[in-house]
Design a protein that fits this description.
The complex is a heterodimer. Chain A is 34% helix and 15% strand. By secondary structure, chain A is of the alpha+beta class. Chain A has two domains: 102 residues, Ubiquitin-like (UB roll); 151 residues, Alpha-helical ferredoxin (Fumarate Reductase Iron-sulfur Protein, Chain B, domain 2). Chain A has a five-stranded mixed β-sheet. In chain A, strands 6-7 form a two-stranded antiparallel ribbon. In chain A, a hairpin with a 2-residue loop joins strand 6 and strand 7. In chain A, helix 2 packs parallel to helix 6 and helix 6 crosses helix 9. The termini of chain A are far apart. The C terminus of chain A is likely disordered. Chain B is mainly α. Chain B has four helices and two strands. In chain B, strands 1-2 form a two-stranded antiparallel sheet. The longest helix of chain B has 31 residues. Chain B is flat, with a radius of gyration of 22 Å. The model of chain B has no long low-confidence stretch (mean pLDDT 93). The chains are: A alpha+beta, B mainly alpha. Chains A and B meet through helix 3, helix 5, helix 8 and helix 9 of A and helix 1 and helix 3 of B.
Chain lengths: 260, 130
């Protein structure tokens, strides 16, 4: 196996000794099949035990190792060195407070994720003894792409609206809200409306589209948000023209109409 | 003493950092020229209300070298505006036929087709195609 010498320039922040982050360079002998995470693990094991970063699965499933590599947010376990130059700059995700080195504070994201009620809210829950919810493959197809999010936060890192407007709920959380809104088993659109259709929800998005470009799971949050905008606008006019006509779920009719 | 989590400042030039942001800002900026064109039309209506001489003077101003440059820039920006937004329509308006998603190029193509039809109708009504 061939070995390649790579320089990794890593943004370090040690809050006990530094008031702001600084770059530190490491020269790493890498194998051709390595990803950036392997190079970081090499540093941790052999060069500098103080380097801090998050990772878990090493197979693009857990979403823990999201970081900015040569100015692009990506999963470090999916960033193959063979696709990158010999000099690689590694930074923590943009738009989040840096806790230490490559680790960012997750609290704001977690709060926003919870705020959109990312779980099934059925009108009439099916009791366990009555079996499972039934769903056709056509109904599954409507939301499946939006269900692939692994919460790596790459979309937040590249979203200028999230960086500039603290309150913005953000791409992943809004995509997840859409994922449940278009699920035929869910009637919770009304319950999510206060957060999702607010000024800090979908209407804060100006369709930069960068979130969809960087998503490692091809979730397309930009599409989810624009589709929610249209659904929300239709809701608004329904309420205006036919007050009281819309049922409390707000999306039961749409779900019933889905091509089963 | 431990410092708090570090928040990196975002400079006013953030949009120059990556090509995708520059393209976004250009797309957004084109709407200013659409607004400028609407303003020109409003001035035209106002000048029409002032009588034939005033309206002729307005038309003469539009055909002046400066007016022609402005018109050309507005047309160019309107094309950029339309093309960039049409290309985004499959994301905002996905179409499903049964359990099959209609390919994006058909949705975009439909918009271009509509654009051509509407333009032809406007030109016909304005006497341009007669």
């Amino acid at each position: 196996m061939s070995e390649r010498q790579i320089t990794l320039e890593v943004l370090r922040y040690r809050p006990e000794s530094e008031s702001e982050p600084v770059f530190q360079s490491y020269s790493v002998p890498c194998q051709e099949e390595w990803v950036v995470l392997d190079a970081l693990n090499y540093i941790k094991d052999n060069l500098d035990r103080t380097l801090s970063y998050r990772w878990s699965c090493h197979m693009a499933v857990c979403g823990s190792c999201g970081m900015v590599i040569n100015d692009n947010p990506m999963l470090s376990c999916k960033a193959f060195l063979r696709d990158l130059p010999d000099h690689i700059r590694v930074e923590p995700l943009h738009n989040f407070p840096i806790e230490r080195d490559l680790m960012v504070e997750l609290d704001d994201f977690m709060d926003k994720l919870k705020s959109v009620k990312p779980y099934l809210i059925p009108d009439q829950p099916v009791a366990e003894e009555d079996g499972t919810y039934r769903q056709s493959s056509a109904q599954l197809k409507k939301y499946k792409p939006f269900a692939m999010c692994i919460n790596c936060m790459a979309c937040y890192s590249v979203c200028p609206q999230y960086g500039l407007n603290e309150g913005f709920v953000g791409p992943a959380a809004l995509a997840l809200a859409h994922r449940y809104n278009v699920d035929s088993r869910d009637q919770g659109r009304r319950a999510r409306e206060d957060v999702v259709a607010s000024n800090t929800g979908i209407w804060e998005c100006t369709f930069v589209g960068a979130c969809s470009e960087v998503c490692p799971k091809n979730v397309d949050p930009a599409a989810a948000i624009q589709q929610t905008k249209i659904a929300s606008t239709v809701d608004y006019f329904k309420d205006l023209l036919m007050p009281g006509k819309r049922d409390k779920s707000g999306n039961a009719k749409q779900a019933a109409g889905d091509g089963a | 003493m431990t410092n708090p989590p570090y928040i990196r400042p975002i400079p006013a030039s953030w949009w120059l950092r990556q090509g995708r942001y520059v393209r976004y800002m250009i797309r957004e900026a084109t709407c200013l020229f659409i607004g400028l064109h609407a303003l020109v039309l409003l001035v035209g209506v106002y000048r029409l209300s002032q009588g034939r001489d005033a309206f002729d003077a307005f038309l003469a101003a539009l055909w002046s070298p400066a007016g022609q440059v402005m018109g050309a820039v507005i047309v160019l920006m309107a094309v950029v505006h339309s093309v960039t937004w049409f290309n985004l329509t499959p994301k905002a308006m996905p179409l499903w036929i049964g359990d099959r998603k209609v390919p994006g190029w058909i949705i975009v193509g439909g918009h271009y087709g509509g654009w051509i039809v509407v333009s032809a109708v406007v030109l016909f009504l304005a006497g341009g195609l007669s």
